Structures are given as structure tokens and as C-alpha cells.
Amino acid sequence: MKLIPRIDSILMRRREEGWKIAGKKPSQTSLARALGVRKQQVSLWARGGAIPRPETIFHMALLLGVKPDELYEFVAPTEAEQKRLIEEFDKKEKEDILRRKENKIKELREKGFTEEAIYEQIRIMGLTKYDRR
Question: By its UniProt entry, which Pfam families does this protein fall under (predicted)?
Fold first, then answer.
């Protein structure tokens, strides 16, 4: 999954059309000034190194006379990439739940809770998802 920036191509098209941003020819510098950010930030967005905040995307789209979704092209993940993303998420979620469960059990044992009370607390917290049944 990718977002491919189209900022530079829109700036070039607007320059060719004689468009102005705050009275200046469209460029990363004039766009940066109009947005109140540094030119380096616009350059980073245009290279795909970062993505602006949603409100900045809308402001930039207004300044360039385009819809916000025209600033970036979304390339959907392939089926294999999507499967890998889901597997990575599931693995991280399992590790997180097991770590949180382990820490909570340790904490409750130190407080003198019985095993039954510990299990009930763990169940209430939703940390039993990966318990063997």
C-alpha cells in the first residue's frame, strides 16, 4: 500500500497555466509560504517522505485548486501484501496481549490475589484471547 505524491506535478501544471499562489508562481517555496511551513517540509511531502496533516492537505488543495485526494495517488496493497500486513498485526497483537497478561498476573500475585481472582481479572480485561482451550 502506498501513497504516491502528486504535489510537484500539480505545481508544474499550475505554473504552465499561469496560476499564482499568494501572488507568486507556483513552487514548493511559494506553497510553503502560503501554508506557513518551511520549504523543506513541502519538499519532504512531495518526495513521499512524510504526509501532511489532514487540515494542511485541505489547505494545500484549496491553494492549488484541486480536490484533496488529487494530491496523492493511493496504490492498494496486493493480496499478498494485505495478507502479510494482517499476519504482522496479528503477531504484534498476540505479543502485546501476552505481555500485558504476564505483567498483570505478576502485579496481582504481588498484591496477594488468589489464582481464581487473578483469572477473573484477566478475563474481564480481555487478556484471555490466546489462552489454550
Answer: HTH_3
